DNA sequence: ATTTATAAAAAGAACGCTCGTTTTATTAAA
DNA sequence: TTTAATAAAACGAGCGTTCTTTTTATAAAT
């Protein structure tokens, strides 16, 4: 069979699983659920993934990869430092609105439960990228000189928190509207005072 | 049997479950695990809790109650506003160091997966209390006037984030040492400028 | 162009195991 | 003697996975 067919099937599994793992929890979604939801047989699923865990692994890699791509593209497009951080926040908010399942999977699903090799989400590709970004800004003197742990928490903490509020259904409004006020708040805590 | 005996058994189950649910995930801890871990039979467990879900419910109520108590006590002991927020942060950090399983259970375990009645953790007792606290401070003019969602995220986001870093094993150092620098950062973003 | 050979892909029944729970029996306390 | 508490075996359902069979696509041979 063609490569197209294989990719199509894998994509079907990806689509269904990322949605349902995030929504119902990894343990609450069985192979038979996936089978029903995708219209594939258990045999077909096991032909493409040697185990349920391998599906989760594939989801994890794909999801973190997609998020990283979006962030990197956003940063590379911006000219100045002030805009870069704002752009990261905006991108994450937009991604949450556009692909809530992707974001839910990346932030919520307890990967440690079933992915024994995977690092905790805070050490995943996108977060590592942002960490490097922060470190560079401190070195350049754009951000106040402070402990990396403190800086990373002050910057990403509020962003993740507000995303979770949205994903929990507490926040009904469009996340993107919060970009500027949240950025302003974060900026006060980390940007160097211009005396 | 005496009430003491009943409470002792319940406590044994509580101790074992809060530790293992947080560590291994609700679905990965079976009744037989609990039985082995506590030295009780499945019959004994089901005599005290009519279902596994009821255990989780009990853990949730107890854990959030304990955290709320600690926060409330801390706030009530402090005299001025500046100290109150710092005290909340310190208390949460201390609690993380002293009772990591309690904190892990409260922040990590996906309650929605099995507790269909329970609110998301951000709407639990401790968080509601802190929300009220923030709202009051804004009204009093201590905190800058801003959207509640923004304020809550700017304050609790970094705190939760740093706690998670510790619980993930990324942060090795004592959390309490981060109280002051983190508070200072948060303060810059929310306290009213004294012009 | 049609047939045939080969492997990829999918189907679906079956297996063994573990789960949450129930049942029945036994022990300890009042 | 009656009830609270524990023990342990048993039940049915559902799980992840494997196995065997059938279908489908691809390419070479006629």
Describe this protein's structure.
2 copies of one chain form a homodimer. Chain A is mainly α. Chain A has a single domain, classed as Tetracycline Repressor, domain 2 (Orthogonal Bundle). Chain A is built from 9 helices and no strands. In chain A, α4 packs across α6. The longest helix of chain A has 26 residues. Chain A is elongated, with a radius of gyration of 19 Å. The model of chain A has no long low-confidence stretch (mean pLDDT 93). At the A-B interface, α8 and α9 of A face α8 and α9 of B. Chain A binds a DNA duplex (30 and 30 nucleotides) through α1 and α3.
Mean pLDDT of chain A, as a whole number?
93
Helix fraction of chain A? over 70%
What CATH architecture label of chain A applies? Orthogonal Bundle
The CATH superfamily title of chain A: Tetracycline Repressor, domain 2
According to CATH, what is the topology of chain A? Answer: Tetracycline Repressor, domain 2
Biggest sheet character of chain A = none
Tell me the name of the CATH class of chain A: Mainly Alpha
Overall number of structural domains of chain A: 1
Gap between N and C termini of chain A: 67 Å
């Amino acid at each position: 069979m063609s490569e197209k067919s294989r990719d199509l099937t894998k994509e079907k599994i990806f689509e269904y699983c990322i949605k349902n793992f995030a929504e119902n929890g990894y343990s609450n979604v069985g192979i038979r659920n996936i089978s029903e939801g995708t219209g594939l047989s258990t045999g077909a699923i096991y032909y493409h993934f040697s185990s349920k865990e391998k599906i989760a692994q594939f989801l994890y890699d794909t999801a973190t990869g997609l998020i990283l791509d979006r962030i990197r593209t956003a940063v590379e497009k911006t000219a100045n430092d002030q805009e870069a951080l704002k752009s990261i926040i905006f991108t994450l908010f937009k991604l949450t609105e556009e692909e809530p399942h992707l974001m839910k999977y990346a932030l919520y699903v307890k990967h440690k439960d079933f992915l024994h090799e995977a690092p905790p989400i805070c050490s995943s590709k996108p977060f590592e990228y942002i960490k490097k970004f922060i470190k560079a800004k401190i070195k350049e003197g754009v951000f106040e000189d402070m402990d990396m742990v403190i800086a990373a928490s002050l910057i990403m903490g509020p962003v993740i928190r507000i995303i979770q509020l949205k994903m929990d259904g507490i926040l009904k409004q469009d996340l993107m509207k919060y970009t500027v006020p949240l950025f302003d708040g974060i900026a006060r805590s980390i940007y160097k005072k211009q005396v």
